């Protein structure tokens, strides 16, 4: 009986060793092959908005305000794009039924605060130190603070009374940088 256990164990061990050698991969070179950069969109921010179902409420807001030119522009900017979830939350919190029921001046202010008049890409070495908010001017003329955590999660208005996390960052359209958020963000005073 002991001999059978010994033979079976030896057979299983030999089989395991063979399988491990067969599954080894031979590396052809010791050069690192970088993956393609899929952050470059090769289109404008407006084209990206139009082609993304999760941004359909933003598209409706832009069309209501006749502000397509802000997102088609050739001058580079940073576009903070609120998702459909952001608009649904905003509608509910402010007792609006639809995007069309938001007064156009208010909607224009919202859209303009979500466009920063600078390129803010979190892979930029100037933004390397984490938790150091940098002030940028928006199209509305107000300040937006942009920074990131130590794990490179983008933050809007860190160090103020209200801050938000960026869900998706560093998408590169032809006319700037896109960051996607699940919130309608607004100007917030520095925390005291």
Structural class: alpha+beta
Report the CATH topology name of the domain at 45-123 and 166-181.
FAS1 domain
CATH architecture level-2 label of the domain at 45-123 and 166-181: Roll
Mean of the pLDDT scores? 85
Question: Biggest β-sheet, characterized?
Answer: 4 strands, mixed
Radius of gyration: 25 Å
CATH class of the domain at 45-123 and 166-181: Mainly Beta
Q: Largest sheet, order of strands side by side?
A: 2-1-8-7
Helix content: 25-40%
Unreliable parts: none
For the secondary structure, the number of strands is 8
Helix-strand pattern, N to C?
A: HHHHEHHEEEEEEE
Number of continuous helical runs: 6
CATH superfamily of the domain at 45-123 and 166-181: FAS1 domain
Alpha-carbon distance between the two ends: 79 Å
């Amino acid at each position: 009986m002991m001999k059978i256990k010994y033979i079976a164990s030896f057979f299983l061990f030999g089989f395991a060793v063979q399988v491990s050698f067969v599954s080894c991969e031979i590396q052809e070179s010791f050069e690192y092959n970088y993956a393609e950069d899929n952050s470059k969109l090769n289109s404008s921010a407006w084209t990206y908005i139009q082609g993304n179902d999760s941004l359909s409420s933003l598209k409706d807001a832009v069309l209501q305000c006749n502000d397509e030119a802000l997102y088609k522009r050739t001058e580079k900017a940073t576009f903070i794009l609120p998702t459909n979830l952001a608009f649904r939350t905003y509608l509910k919190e402010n007792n609006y039924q639809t995007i069309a029921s938001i007064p156009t001046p208010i909607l224009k202010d919202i859209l303009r605060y979500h466009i920063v008049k600078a390129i803010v890409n979190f892979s930029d070495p100037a933004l390397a130190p984490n938790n150091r908010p940098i002030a940028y001017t928006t199209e509305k003329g107000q300040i937006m603070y942009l920074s990131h955590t130590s794990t490179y999660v983008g933050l809007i208005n860190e160090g103020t009374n209200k801050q938000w996390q960026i869900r998706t960052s560093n998408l590169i359209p032809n006319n700037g940088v896109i960051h996607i958020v699940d919130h309608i963000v607004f100007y917030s005073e520095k925390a005291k």
